[in-house]
Records
---
Amino acid sequence: MNNASTAHAYEKHKNEYGVKLSYLVSDEDKRHEQSIDAFKYNSYKLKCYRNSAFRLREGRGKGNEALVRWTALEKHQQHALIGKWGHPDMHLVKGMWRDNYVRDSKAAEFYASYRLADGRGLTDAQQEEYTTNASVLNTLEVVLMKRREIRKKKGSSTAPVWDIVTGDVREFGKESGHTIKVANLRRVLRDYKASGYKSLISGKLGKRNAAKVSNKEQRVVLEELIGKHQNLDNAQVAEWYNGLAAASKWKQITPTTVANHRERMGLTTYAARRGESNFRNKISMQHKRTRPGAAMTYWTLDGWDVELMYQKKEDGENTTYHNRPTVVIVLDPCTDYPVGYAIGTHEDSNLIKEACKSAVDHTKLLFGKRYYPLQLQSDHYGKGSLTPFYEAMTRLYTPAKVKNAKSKVIEPYFKHLNKRIQRALMPNWSGFGVTSEKEAQPNSDYLAKIRKNFPDFMGVVQQVEWLIAAERAEKVEAYMAMWDKLPEADRIEVGMEKYLDMFGITTGYTNKLEPAGIMPTINGEKITYDCFDIKFRELAYMDWVIKHDPADLNQALAVNAERKNGQVTEIGTYKLLLEKKHEQPMALYDRKDGDAEQLARINNYNKQLEGHILAHKQENREVLEDLFCSNPALETYQKHLLPDSKGQHKDRRNEARIGKAKKETILIQPVKLDEEYEVIFDAQAYVRAQY
């Protein structure tokens, strides 16, 4: 190492080590050519501003460069300087000491990784102290040997050498900061030779309270007492422990001893004292996640007891004022946009389903069609009954981990809404949670005075609706931009059949198909539905429940069901989408646009229906002909099952026998439909001409 160069990097000022600024900065116009480039000059100024102790001396021109305090530098910066320039201590080592003093890097590594019995490491100051002491002892051994060799060559006695180096060590201690007691120097050096670096560690470390709680049994007893779910205080733990200690002939402990061990045993006792949920939220390692990169890729939902109070009549007499509504919110975290919500007096499965329906309906308002999210998260409320529902409305359902609020990103959103309520100065705001500071809560005395002015339930519903509307108005533009980022291939459109199957409500009764259609009573009104799927008429014998959307009765879903003892049970093996029956006017004069198309649509359907039946009957005839031709013994049955359109069977039988049978394709004589209303425009012109 070039010690002459080393003298340029460090300088002592007011009995402290400093590093010249030019050996630290990376700015081309300010750095020394051998700078370690620790930081820029502007960063240096900022560090000085934030920490006045960072700078040891201000720069005052040439020859009086600014100094950065050695102890204020970070460890890696010190190590970089030491690796390049050596330790500042080397400036103070004179003569033989200077030539042989080397900072012991292995000692520094040893003390940095050393752990006490309780798992604690050494502090930075302790590491520095012990590394310096080891370096001094290493140098002492070299100096002792060389001084003795010199005196031997001169023929002098080596006895005074120890006194000489002892003085050197004492003098060096004033400048280097080593803590070796010269009076114990022989013993310290002897122990160092025998046990190495570990011998320099103070015996007091790790022995705090160790004499009282020293073996495994004692630690286990103390840990179990600290971890009791009754949360005993330190004095109570000490009392219980000392009772057992007296019987076991252990040393007694004090509440202070318990307090020290309580901190060190925090990891293994926290769950027992505070519960599994708190342990997972405050002790366990947490995942850090990013927001979704596009809309509709991830929804989360949860219920929230809104911090808005309303008054309610109990039993028609007493009035309570502490009531709070519950809102289930469906949130898209990409912009914290509330896609759907439902308000009620308490959370239940119906309120959750209503919120989900609200969310799906809102997507139609935003995007023109109904969509489901790619992923959905909820808590475990109603796990058994709601899981199939959740799985049906997403590609991937991921319930949040039980008793881990941090896994639900919607929780901070509720806090945001609560602050918004506070900011809006709503007089019936009840404040924050019970764990919040009292200073942040509303004046409870004033709330009691104005409680009779609290809104009723419908009034508080309007407040919540205003809150959601305000949120949407602020975020809808950003949310629509996030929707544009979702590729078409990843958009899950919701068909009407699936939508009604999931969210449609029923009348509580079953209905059968009648000639006019199927006619459930909804909100006291008979509504006629029909289906253009032939399967519906093939299944006319079945009972159906009709699922409908009260907000749009133009379509409904028929699901086969059975009714026993007043209870309706969905079977669900057949599901058919129905249309509300179009009503044709009796008078041609009353016809309007669309009537003719609907009339033609039904007539065409009926033709297809009859054609379907004819084709089916023809298939049956072909099967029977093959059967009778291959079984002559069935001739008696043939005349009943295979007559032609004229009622003859013998001729057909004979033709079949000689292979000349002609297949009859007309089994049912076509009926000439009354086409009076088919000629629409001529009839209208005629009627109008009469007036």
---
Amino acid sequence: MENAKKIFESIEDLLSRAKFEDALCTIRKMDTSKLAEADYSYYCLLISQAMLSTGDNDIDDFIHKALSFYKKQDNDVLYAKSRYLFGWHLAVAGNFIEAHEVLMEAFVFLKRHDKYREMSLVLNRLAYVQNHTGAIEDAIANLKDSIDINRDLGINHNVIQFSRNLATVLIRSGRFHDALTHLQSKMNELTDLDEGERLRFELGYSLSLAFMGDTGRAIKNLKSAKKYLTSVNVDKSVYHEYLGWIYNLDGQYEKAAKTLKAGVKIAVRIGPESTYVSQTKRLLADAYVGLKEFDLAEKTAREALAVAEKIRERSEIGACYRVFAQVELNRGNGEKAKKRYHDAIDIFLNVNSRYELAITRYLATISGLYQSGERAAMLYLAKEYFQSEDITHYVNLTDRELNYSQAAPIIPSGVGDDAAVFIARDRQMVQLIKLAENVASSSMTIFLTGPTGSGKDRLARYIHERSGRKGKFVIVNSAAIPDSMVEAELFGFRKGSFTGAEHHRTGLLEEADGGTFYLNEIADATPEFQAKLLEVIETKFIRPLGSNVRKAIDIRIIAATNNDLDNKMKSGRFRRDLYHRLNEIPIILPSLKERPDDFLPLI
């Protein structure tokens, strides 16, 4: 139909210029009753894009019609575009694993036909998924590629949008130096920013300054940027949210509460179940904690959590748990508080939110809920991050808690005649050994990485011998256990549980009960091994083959690898959720070539 074609062209033009509301208004005025199937399928494609672009994810019927039609038509490009929109839909709904698969499929089809603009849109959406699943490096790389593609194509509004998205990823992952550099560069480069766009860049810049401790400059900068504030509710909502956030960071909790209350009213007008509502209410709960109004803090955090859970905003869920921890601590409910801190830390580890993780660890350590070993471990890890971003205020606070002192240059074991001895003069290794000694008595998992010969096995035993654990140090070659033997080897079995089971046998995990379970070559573990190990870490129970009784076990897990796990996680050969469970305390050992000072003690 000729008329439909002209309308479609006008809608495509509006979408290409980011006039999403206008595009949606135009397409909804169309009479679809007389459209041929091909035209109706294209209508479904366009309305799906317009709806998603305006925050409406209710596109199921439309997108499935488009997918079905273009798959039958063998039209790679339009089928790929349908897959892209479907992946976007899945991502917004929080189905990140499926979304990643669908988006990757769309990218392959588009690349085959050199559709670079469309490829950049897929990369941007992939970055959204990766940001929510902790694959931050991938998200950053994809956003940089999408920016480059659109710069080459001269599509300036996409360059602006994707540059903002990159800043958001950098800020949310706690890379404030990189965020400041990126934002300053873009504000200098993109001279034709309109008022709303300029405001959004200034908001990110001000928040990054505040996170790094320069709250005075951040507040001044943000108030100066108020002149760019438009009548758009989203901009007004984010302005109030960020200003309240900065007031919180500056300890001005009354001003924060007043600003955030105003922000909540605006956010609700955008959408009562939007990320703006969830985050602004959670920040308001933080302000109430600062004001010691704990009942209000809990009530507000519960409202924020209800929205965050619905939209699957995991970082906000973790931040709400942290509020609950502080509330329970104030009420004297130590165990509840500790569980909430643990839940928050677990989420921040999984989504790779380094700043929120470090802050939560610090707050947990000053709560008085943790024993010295676990407390020291969390303080060291928090301090390591704060130092990496030059957040001086928190470096000083963690130093004070640690009562930090320089390690001695040579550190022998001194535990038994055949105990592990770790001799080091290299400054970096001395610090790593000091860290190992401080975390030895905690129950947190440790992940050792480093090249062959760097001392991972020796350090694992060294940690065990200083842990105070009375049980065995059980070494497991993760790569050597085939899928068919995983349960029998890990959990053991009872006589008669399978053909050839002529006697009871204790599994490796039970053998390590009360001690340390050392997983060497963990990167080469089979999928079945990974699944069973994750189950044990989460439940702390085992059940031998042939038994109906579960047994609680108390083990400390240390894992080691000389492989690059990033590539294995990208390809799906290693579980990202298991990695985060194992990586509570990461220790990276340099090669001997990188520590020449250690050669002499070894001769």
---
Amino acid sequence: MEEIFVRLSGVMPDPKTELDFVNPYTLVVAVALSAQATDVGVNKATKALFAVADTPQKMLVLGEEGLIPLIASIGLYRTKAKNVIAAARMLVEKHGGEVPLNRTDLQALPGVGRKTASVVLNELGIEPAIAVDTHVFRVSHRLGLANAATPDKVEVQLHQVVPEAWLTKAHHWLILHGRYTCLAQRPKCPGCVISDLCPSRASFMGV
């Protein structure tokens, strides 16, 4: 188990989110926008967005009609626009325009679920958390780290088996490993640094 993370740390010593952000608020927005979208696509949209609205107050001034054209390239942009504006309003009205850095208040924001809250808290170094997206779900199953059928249950299993020392970075390692090596189709097993530790290797390499 630990050897998996030792090796991943060797190739990714300081993993970070690939989403661009400038403060806790823009991190929340970027992560919320990334649902069913690529980080590359989100970054293209938020470059212009954050230039004009990098606080909840500025986002409310921009408004939903001003926001939509800036994020129209992202999937589900109309729903996401409604949530971003509603979340900005809640932050201004209930939290003085500041992002509450605790799970309960974060998850109370429109458009912010458990996964988004976990990413934010982990990225800001507040709470070690493993947010389970499609990459983490796939990689954890292939490596035998988890076998649950839902993301929330996989998260629980990962917290039970991942050594505490690796928790903060494990989220990024699993995502990046799934994004660039352990692909959904045709995983790159021959070049994988942990292929000999993977119980699923035979399924893809015929060995």
